[in-house]
Amino acid sequence: MQISGVARSVLSLYRQVLRAARRHDPTTRKHVEAFARAELEKSRGVSKTNVQQIEHLLRKGQRQLSQLQDPAFAQFRWGGTAE
User: Fold this and answer.
1) What is the overall mean pLDDT for the chain?
2) Membrane-spanning regions, if any (predicted)?
3) pTM exceeding 0.90
């Protein structure tokens, strides 16, 4: 089965997020993985012909990946509590 270019981009972004999540503590990793999966599922219903929305979601995902890879993200605490 062949995968379209768009689907390949989505899967690539998802894998990059999962790899970036590995660099964080186990709790943060779980939250990031759950968030990434939820976003992927939420976007599943987007029509394959709606190129603008797909491109928007991919750019949004790339920005979020950049934030995740930022060293300052290591200071982020889920649930709003800073330690």
Assistant:
1) 85
2) none
3) no
